[in-house]
Specification:
2 domains, 14 strands, alpha/beta, nine-stranded mixed β-sheet, 24% helix, 9 helices
Length: 289
């Protein structure tokens, strides 16, 4: 189904996301859009909402399987506006959002689908799930100048850390069960990344409810949604492996010539398994075994 605008989708597309879980994919450029769609279809999402520019061309067979909304994604405010709109359309439905050339991983995703993941998370009385955005990059930028290669992808095996999240309303104590996470290319090349874009945590999976609003820093207006765990034990976390930062650093004239390669002594090939991410501590199963 093709929608000519976000307003068109709001008027006629509610049935597409009523059952959930639904994935919202925001297309910033035309790189690896098809692989992003197909990957999330295989992950088990019942609906794929594709927010894309009109310049994107998809095979007719694939376009028939998604809900495509003509919607240019130029800034984080565009993502906020769309996520808020979809949230208001389907209270109670599980939603997920990402960008093109990003791929969701969660514990045991090779043998369990996203519906099983969210069924368990719901039973734990959780309404959102923290995801870490793990940077991927091509191993050879001369061969892959846009830094994207699914077959030759690397990631950093170390260099990730967390800081307590300040509470503007209480300078003496940080926010409860909330942390700011850093690492990857945004940490290694921080001189090229604005300060407010350096975090790698994203509340990427959440349960819609009226009045919920997405903030520019990928957190939500309901503070409990931004917590990494409930008060009584650790919960599942996910990872989104992403070429987005690598693409931006190589496409930006201010940084591209300063980066002949993203590889360093802590680079390792990405094997596209959840076990590798679990072993590196980039997500955890909580009580899900």
């Amino acid at each position: 189904m093709r929608y000519t605008s976000l307003d068109h989708f709001r008027q006629t597309g509610a049935a597409a996301i009523a059952r959930g879980p639904a994935a919202m994919i925001f297309v910033e450029d035309l790189i690896e859009v098809e692989s992003t769609i197909r990957y999330h279809q295989l992950t088990g999402f019942k609906a794929i909402l594709l927010f894309a520019p009109t310049a994107l061309e998809l095979p007719s067979s694939l376009e028939d399987e998604v809900h495509r909304i003509d919607y240019p994604v130029l800034d984080v405010a565009d993502v906020q506006r769309a996520v808020d709109a979809v949230n208001d359309m389907a209270p109670g439905a599980w939603l997920y959002y990402c960008y093109n050339a990003e791929y969701l991983f969660f514990p045991f995703c090779e043998t369990r689908n996203v519906n099983e993941l969210l069924t368990f998370h719901t039973e734990e009385r959780r309404s959102a799930m923290l995801a870490y955005v793990v940077d991927l990059y091509a191993d050879d930028l001369r061969r892959y100048p846009n830094a994207v290669s699914l077959d030759h992808a690397c990631l950093d095996k170390t260099g990730y850390y967390a800081l307590s999240r300040p509470d503007p309303g209480n300078r003496n104590y940080p926010k409860e069960r909330q942390l700011d996470f850093f690492g990857g290319l945004r940490w290694r090349y921080e001189e090229h990344v604005p300060r407010d874009r350096r975090k790698i945590d994203r509340i990427a999976i959440f349960r819609a409810k009226q009045g919920l609003r997405l903030r520019a820093d990928h957190t939500f207006s309901d503070e409990e949604y931004n917590t990494y765990a409930c008060p009584w034990h650790n919960n599942i976390t996910a990872a989104i492996v992403s070429f987005r930062t690598a693409k931006a650093l190589k496409m930006n004239a201010g940084s591209t010539f300063a980066i002949p390669t993203f590889k360093w002594h802590n680079s390792v090939p990405f094997d596209w398994t959840s076990q590798q991410l679990l072993d590196l501590g980039l997500m955890e199963p909580g009580q899900w075994f």
